[in-house]
Specification:
The structure is a single chain. The protein is α/β, with parallel strands linked by helices. It folds into two domains: 242 residues, Ribonuclease Z/Hydroxyacylglutathione hydrolase-like (Metallo-beta-lactamase, Chain A); 144 residues, Flavodoxin domain (Rossmann fold, 3-Layer(aba) Sandwich), CATH 3.40.50. The protein contains twelve helices and 22 strands. Helix 5 crosses helix 9. The chain is elongated, with a radius of gyration of 24 Å. Bound molecules: MU-OXO-diiron (FEO). The site of MU-OXO-diiron (FEO) has 9 residues, from helix 2.
Length: 397
Amino acid sequence: MSVQEILPNIYSVGVIDWNVRTFHGHTYTTKRGSTYNAYLILDEKIALVDGVLGAFTEEFLSNIRQVVPFEKIDYVIANHVETDHSGALPAVMKLCPNAKMLGTQKCKEGLYKNYYGEWDFQVIKTGDTLALGKRSLNFIEAPMIHWPDSMFTYCPQEQLLLPNDAFGQHYATSERFDDEVDQCALMDEAAKYYANILWPLGSVIAKKIEEVQKLNIPIKMIAPSHGIIWRRDPGKIINAYLGWAKNKTQPKVVVVYETMWGATEKMARKIIEGITSGGVSVKLFDIATSDRTEVIKEMLDAKGFLFGSSTHDNDMLPTMAGFLAFLKGLKPKNRLTSAFGSYGWGGGAIKGIESVLKEAGLVNTQPGLSVQYVPDTDEFKRCYEFGKEFAQEVKKT
Ligand code: FEO
């Protein structure tokens, strides 16, 4: 990423990771790559906000050097301890040993346990401010958005919010601003990011957004730590987050299945005919061959989830079991669900799926539909009706 002045004397000095294809271990696919954003604020005092992944340290240091000599940096603000933002900070601190680092208490503890650096560290609490000269920075602790150490930095003179991971996207672009990129791709990546990383934290996120709104601080620009900067309409992503955080949904059903010899797939295809006949939008995924990150994104605004699996060892197939375990961790709420599947003799997949759905606190709207071996004409009709009835329930709510 070339260095760019995003506001007078405020520079974007982060890096683009064009080639990253998985994130958080392998829990998240990043088909459009990502960026690690950091910002340098020049005033009578100079502050660096956030860092980048350790692998990009040299490029990051070079970007900073293009703007200011390291010895002139007074403050290094760490909004978040996770290593995609802090990995390069030990190298920065070596080059500006007189700089003070600022972050929350949890951030201080986390940075120490990652890097064992003995840095001059000022612990920040909500309401603390830092005078830079003509500008100042205000801090808002944001625990569990998305780690306990997370914090937002706000510059009132520029009406600029630097919220680190919140409002980000894994989206590598040479452009820096929302008005310069494809809007569908941007919102698609923002939704995917929310669904796969932030979904379980909805109540905390809604509360924090409402708390910030009550502070009546005007926000003209949101510069997150991944992806593009929101300047055209920051309210668009704030409102999207509020909707997602409150589990607002569309009349849409996501059908996820895994099949052994094709019978459960046949059922799934007939079920979605029934759903669409009811005027409800549907997405169908074979979880054994689909990108889980994309499936979860599609579930974010769907009112209904249907899960199908062949029976194997008296339970669902293993890829479906792994998928449901991941989904359960995301804690979706206010969804309608049911299960279906083909079995050979004893059955068990539907019972297994229903048990996980119950543990996840999801409403089972109608009894599961099971078929022995391959569906006959009557059983296909039942599949169609099963989908149609489910669609009616989805439309009711
Ligand atoms: Fe982008 Fe929580 O790190």
